């Protein structure tokens, strides 16, 4: 069984284009319909558990399935096999990027891909907002999260504070009244040189607190690596996001790309391990606890607040990405067409990224010939 689990998740990690929703659909088809390893109810229970903890939901679902089928060995093998193909692909692309990204052809491809990424994140904000912002309180919390982030608050403080506010409003007589006071403060990170240990712990922190969607990752990367530590610039972050979209497997392999830019192959390895390690630990620890948390009125309120704040963080990142990507009429046209295709026809995001790259390459080639 362990060998079959390994082969299945290697396959899914290699062909899993389209983001978490597509990954989850593929896993369900394989483990419920085709192989009948799990019942529909068991699969939905594991999916719910993955959605209630920080980290990449589709990767954590793979880890949950491995744990359920093969115990601790399955937990390690399923997660590693799902992550490994994408991590290797992203490392190869990062190596090519470091060597060739100043070439006109590569610049042209990224010129067309960046507006598509903006459209993909816009769709994520819309869909997550519709699903999670139920009622005035959660909408207010999402807006407050945007404002707090714009004013420079740490993302983890924003998430915890928003979760505490919703808990306080819904449970005014509970001990949650004291939570916000414990969350005030934070402080900004200081610019530091890149070291492997520092790189590892930055991504461990991000992997342990990114809650609600893989796209919240962008807010943490922007704050930690661009604004505070200055290890990346906005353009490199956008390129990393684009690579995460065009490759199969978890969006969190964006960390692999960033790690390579920061410190070569060792950096890619430690960044990948750092960002995915909390997922393994959280899946192992959370199984028996999560049903109790969701049944608890206080726990459920806190999780609703965190999710609402997550939507706000993504919206803020969308503004930053749009500012960096929409530089002329062509990029504006690309983002508008991409939004139409995503919302009206639900085109696979991976195909849009590839198409955007081709359009960008064609447009820059025409411009060069005119010059």
Keywords:
371 residues, mainly alpha, 2 domains, 16 helices
SSE map:
Layout (H helix, E strand, L loop, with lengths): L1 H14 L4 H15 L5 H12 L5 H44 L3 H29 L3 H15 L4 H16 L8 H5 L12 H14 L6 H13 L5 H13 L7 H33 L3 H6 L1 H29 L3 H17 L3 H22 L1
Would you tell me the structural class of the helices and strands?
mainly alpha
| β-strand number | 0
**Tally of DSSP helical segments:** 16
- Could you state the order of secondary-structure elements as H and E? HHHHHHHHHHHHHHHH
Number of domains: 2
| Unreliable segments of 5+ consecutive residues | 173-179, 181-190
Provide a short characterization of the protein structure.
This protein is mostly helical and 371 residues long.
Descriptive account of the structure:
The chain has 371 residues and is mainly α. It folds into 2 domains: 2-85, no CATH class; 86-370, no CATH class. The protein is built from 16 helices and no strands. The protein has helices spanning 2-15, 20-34, 40-51, 57-100, 104-132, 136-150, 155-170, 179-183, 196-209, 216-228, 234-246, 254-286, 290-295, 297-325, 329-345, 349-370. The protein is globular and about 65 Å long. The termini are far apart.
